[in-house]
Amino acid sequence: MFTTHFRNQYYIYRQKVILFAIIFCVGFLGVNHEVSAQNYDYKRIYDEFYDDKIVHFGFLFGFGSSRFNIHHSESFNTPGSTAVTIVSPGNFSFQVGGLVNVKLSDRFDLKSGLNIALYGRQINYRFQNSSNFPAELRESTWLEMPILLKYKSLRRGNSRMFVDAGVKLGLETNVRKNAASTRRLDTNTGDVSLEYGIGLEQFFKYFKFTPELRFSHGLTNLFQTPAANSYARDIQRLNAHSVTLYLMFE
């Protein structure tokens, strides 16, 4: 009888232990789930159906540095040459304009637009046996149209990266008519440039903000000067070069 009584007591205690263990586990998991839920930070996705639309419009501002890439003539640094150095320092440039973005696929877009660009490209000369260092500043306003193919990454929340590349067509609008009469440096009024850049798309509640760093290399020889211009006799070719930070809003 004692043995039977002892087994019955052990069986009752075992049920209580198992029940207590189940209650403890359920309570622990519930508390842990509540703590996890409290620590979870919900992040709102802005304009989540943005990519369903094919065409988007916007505007931009650009701030950068622009200069000439100088290719010297064969007479440079020869016995008949007068110039010791010819350099083109970077000068501030500014752009403003509109943009259009056309979706081609989930990863590729076509970017274009029409911009007004202000450039102040300069050339500094240093001549032999002279303490005078003349400089020629070519201030100009250009109408430009970039045509770029953009490759974008997958969107992570409200952000994604992209790279783009293409060409830019440019036309100078404020052509100076007295360059030949002053016999100073003059440049052509049309240009085609190779462009490439990298940027970030950041989505907000009411708009998309896109900063982009873009490099531009002119393919056209802009050098144009009268034969009597002693300042430019050692120059054979001028190509535009610029580095621009674009701030775009769509």
Automatic annotation (TrEMBL):
Pfam families (alphabetical): OMP_b-brl_2
Ranges of residues in domain Outer membrane protein beta-barrel: 55-224
InterPro entries in the record: Beta-barrel_OMP_2 (IPR025665)
Protein name in the entry: Porin family protein
Originating species: Arcicella rigui
